[in-house]
Automatic annotation (TrEMBL):
Catalysed reaction, written as an equation: 2 GTP = 3',3'-c-di-GMP + 2 diphosphate
Transmembrane region(s): 187-209, 216-237, 249-270, 282-305, 311-328, 335-355, 367-386
Superkingdom: Bacteria
UniProt keyword annotations, A-Z: Membrane, Signal, Transmembrane, Transmembrane helix
Domain GGDEF: 435-569
InterPro entries with a match to the protein in the record: 7TMR_DISM_rcpt_extracell_dom1, 7TMR_DISM_rcpt_extracell_dom2, Diguanylate_Cyclase, GGDEF_dom, Nucleotide_cyclase, Rev_trsase/Diguanyl_cyclase
Name of the protein this chain belongs to: diguanylate cyclase
């Protein structure tokens, strides 16, 4: 009967033991430090305590119940003052000099280290990010505290971490060699991402200056904001320039400007103002909220950053909705934007959950915003490439249309209208350089009889033959055109009357020795008559020079054709 009555008591004691075992209260054995060749502790058990009062003295903190955790923690915005407890035991016979690393100390306001031996406080170090005299423990963005463990000594380290807003950190323990290695390559990956963004920034600013297209400017400004925030938030500025502490808080407004430029980029590439008024005003409304928050941040940055999470959610919802709307409307760039922005939203969501202490501490979650910005930037660069290719096609089409409008379709020489325009431009330049120019009019002899005798097909063939010979015998700088039915004109820059005569005679003699086959048994020979005039350098009158060349041409015809005549006063 006694055994039976004692069973409920046994069950109760067993249940209490299980509760103690499963309790989150820290009661772990110390971390054992052995005489290994290298000491590199990056995954170990510690404990933390959140001081809600934010001013509890150390003597009182020692007696608090600490919660067991890993050495990587994210506790959100309500844990600005957090204490960490690490127990160590040197089981080796040799003295160990070790280094405690806080690699994300650059985003804290203070980091303090308390060393306790056998319940007695033996050493205190306070690192205040705003006081240079305490920054000897700050190295390239990381807080590094050295401490010593004597043989068989047990020591408890208490680390006090004071954050500005979000509390997240990782603590590592190294020997001297591993400490140096950890510091050397800590921000290499961030530097590579910022370098990639910098290349895109320069490229898009150059595109903007050359094309004056606003999307390049907005995209470049978006990259500037994103790259600046990545360098600031992930320690690159702290690593390169020792920039940390309260002075950097206002700089986090760059995260507010980033969506501002992204929305302007959307408005521009989707042309919402002209084509999609509902989507346009939705984006404009979010823009106004962002501007208000930015102005608020200039006076109260902490409050503005608190609102930024809500604004970011509104911006993401609006931008994704507009992207889906554009995709439904089959806008050619909507899919690219939706993929890029979707990646940004996905990784930024992981980051928000991490900063709030909901998601676990890993590289992807802790660097989610930076990863999202980099991926979005790469995908949006495809939109830029697509826009450039589209504009190039449009310019090519316009160039083709312009060429068709300025070219004679039969001979592929310039037509009369384009010749007049090009000749005037050249003569304006010649007036400045005091160069002599000459003009020649060329006419196919007896062309009407060729058309009447052999038909228009052979007539067209004859015109093409003359045009090809003129083109092949002329110089690259000469301006050639079909001026009428069987009449051609040549403007010869930097050419006096005698040199022009030599050039035209070369064309005439080449044509004189050329035959055009009518059929296998019959062919014809073509001749031309030409009139040449020199453009008056004192009065560069194009039409006057053409009239003079026409008079010389008339003289060639009256003298029997198949010859070149110069106009002389």
């Amino acid at each position: 009967m006694t055994i039976i009555r004692s069973l409920p008591l046994i069950h109760t004691l067993f249940f209490l033991c299980l509760c103690l075992i499963n309790s989150s209260v820290y009661a772990a054995t110390p971390i054992q430090i052995t005489n290994d060749s290298e000491i590199k502790l990056e995954q170990f058990e510690m404990a933390y305590f959140v001081d809600k009062s934010e001013n509890m003295p150390f003597e009182q903190v020692q007696g608090q119940n600490f919660t067991k955790s890993s050495n990587r923690l994210s506790l959100g915005t309500k844990s600005k003052t957090t204490w960490i407890k690490i127990q160590l035991h040197n089981v080796d016979k040799n003295t160990q000099k070790l280094y405690l690393h806080h690699p994300y100390a650059y985003h804290n306001s203070k980091v303090e280290l308390y060393e306790v031996e056998q319940g007695v406080l033996s050493n205190v170090r306070v690192l205040d990010m705003d006081k240079k005299e305490t920054q000897q423990w700050m190295y390239r963005g990381s807080a590094v505290f050295d401490f010593t463990l004597q043989p068989n000594q047990q020591k408890t380290l208490f680390v006090k971490s004071l954050s500005f807003s979000h509390q997240w950190f990782a603590l590592n323990i190294y020997d001297e060699n591993q400490s140096k290695r950890a510091l050397l390559g800590q921000f290499t990956n961030i530097a590579l991402v910022v370098g990639m963004l910098l290349a895109l920034i320069i490229y898009n600013f150059l595109l903007f200056f050359s094309s004056r297209l606003k999307e390049h400017f907005y995209y470049a400004c978006y990259l500037v904001s994103g790259g600046f925030w990545i360098a600031l938030s992930y320690g690159l500025f702290a690593d390169l320039f020792n920039i940390f502490g309260s002075v950097t808080i206002i700089w986090h407004l760059s995260l507010v400007t980033m969506p501002f430029f992204l929305l302007l980029f959307m408005i521009n590439i989707f042309e919402t103002k002209k084509k999609y008024p509902i989507e346009h005003w939705a984006l404009v409304a979010v823009l106004i909220l962002l501007v208000i928050n930015f102005i608020h941040g200039l006076f109260d940055i902490v409050a503005a950053l608190d609102y930024s999470s809500t604004l970011a959610a509104i911006m993401m919802l609006a931008s994704l909705s507009v992207s889906l709307s554009m995709l439904i409307r089959r806008h050619p760039m909507a899919l690219f934007f939706l993929i890029g922005h979707g990646l940004f939203v996905a990784f930024s969501t992981l980051a928000v959950l991490f900063y709030k202490g909901i998601a676990e501490f890993n590289y992807v979650n802790s660097h989610g915003v930076g990863i999202g910005i980099a991926l979005e930037a790469l995908v949006l660069s495809l939109i830029i490439a697509y826009r450039i290719r589209t504009l190039e096609k449009l310019k090519s089409t316009q160039a083709d249309l312009q060429l068709l409008a300025s070219t004679d379709p039969l001979t592929k020489l310039f037509n009369r209208r384009h010749f007049n325009s090009a000749a005037v431009q050249h003569l304006d330049l010649a007036e400045q350089t005091k160069q002599t120019s000459s003009i020649a009019l060329i006419d196919i002899d007896h062309f009407k009889s060729i058309n009447d005798t052999y038909g228009h097909t052979l007539g067209d063939k004859s015109i093409k033959c003359v045009a090809n010979i003129i083109k092949n015998q002329s110089r690259q700088e000469d301006i050639l055109a079909r001026y009428g039915g069987e009449e051609f004109i040549i403007l010869m820059p930097n050419t006096n009357l005698d040199d022009a005569f030599i050039l035209i005679e070369r064309i005439r003699k080449k044509l004189e020795s050329t035959t055009i086959e009518i059929d296998t048994n019959q062919s014809i020979q073509l001749t031309i008559s030409a009139g040449i005039a020199e453009v008056n350098t004192q009065d560069l009158n194009l039409q006057e020079a053409i009239n003079q060349a026409d008079k010389a041409l008339y003289k060639s015809k009256n003298n029997g054709r198949n010859q070149s005549q110069l106009f002389k006063e």
